[in-house]
Amino acid sequence: MELRQLSYFVAVCEELSFSRAATRCYISQSAISHQIARLEHDLGVQLFERSTRSVVPTDATTRLLPLAKQMLSLESAIRAAVRASGPRIRLAANMSFATRSLSAIAGAREAHPGAEIEFVIKPFRQRIAAVADGDCDLALIRGSVDMPGLTVEKLWVEDLVIATSTAHPLAGRDDVTLAQLGDHPLLLPPEQEQVLLHNVVRKAFADLPTRPIFGPPIPPDHTATMELINRPDAWTILYADSQTEGIATLRLAGGPLRVPVSAVLRSETRRSPILETLLAALGSS
């Protein structure tokens, strides 16, 4: 039994899908299935009942899951405990924050020449867990999170982009309204994978007499921009740095949809001068 197998096991339990768990763990579906099968062989039990439509945990899974999470948490604690002492910060984010993060890190290092600041790529849930476990000092997220022991500090507000195929009937207009967009299907990932975007849409349409028409959810192994090319009648919402050549971006009448970007820290974190400098640099970049 290996720790990575426990990590894959937890991902499958939480996603109830081998394909979504594979995407979350940045490996292929066949690889995660193979590792779960090895774990089942090592433990001598079946952990999931698989079918073409569902993944159902067994009784053994219910007993193993809290222990697996405890083991992974202990691993993070061990890594945090043996990290070299000194001025060191670990910042967890995803690639969409890379440009702004690296610029802020460069500024913080200039102000504190002896500081070591790491930029580590993690998906959303792993970012939060890394901060909670002490493996990372802070994480960047869009939106917020409510979890005991964590503090959320808003850094900046990010504009969202309305995007369509260049063949869309509304493409090329100076601006569009939500009511006009409401006549066309909206393509988004399933709500459990993009709660923030779905909440933004609900809030934006709350005062309108109509609601958006949702098209088929975007599968985990597809991109929103590719779906727009396949569905030239549809529209979607992208983060500002997600724009792609061949996709039209539309200006929303009344101003863009916006989301807060926040830093997540442990409530007990000592706010060192390096950390304060980095947070200030992130907020002003």
Provide a count of the helices.
Answer: 10
Series of H and E elements: HHHEEHEHEHEEHEHEHEEEH
Q: Which band does the percent of strand residues land in?
A: 15-25%
What is the helical fraction, as a range of percent?
40-55%
Low-confidence stretches: none
Assembly state here? single chain
Radius of gyration: 21 Å
**Distance between the ends:** 44 Å
Major β-sheet annotation: 7 strands, mixed
Structural category: alpha/beta
Task: Round the mean pLDDT to the nearest integer and report it.
Answer: 89
Morphology: flat
Strand segment count? 11
Describe this structure in words.
The chain has 285 residues and is an alpha/beta fold. The chain contains ten helices and eleven strands. It has helices spanning 3-15, 18-25, 29-43, 59-82, 98-111, 124-133, 178-181, 195-205, 224-230, 273-284; strands at residues 48-50, 55-57, 88-93, 116-121, 138-142, 150-165, 185-186, 213-214, 235-239, 247-250, 258-266. The strands form three sheets. Strands 3, 4, 5, 6, 9, 10 and 11 form a seven-stranded mixed β-sheet that branches. Strands 1-2 form a two-stranded antiparallel ribbon. Helix 1 (3-15) crosses helix 2 (18-25), helix 1 (3-15) crosses helix 4 and helix 5 crosses helix 10 (273-284). The longest helix is centred in the first third of the chain and has 24 residues, at 59-82. It is flat and about 55 Å long.
Task: Identify the notable features of this structure and list them briefly.
two-stranded antiparallel ribbon, 7-stranded mixed β-sheet, alpha/beta, single chain, about 280 residues
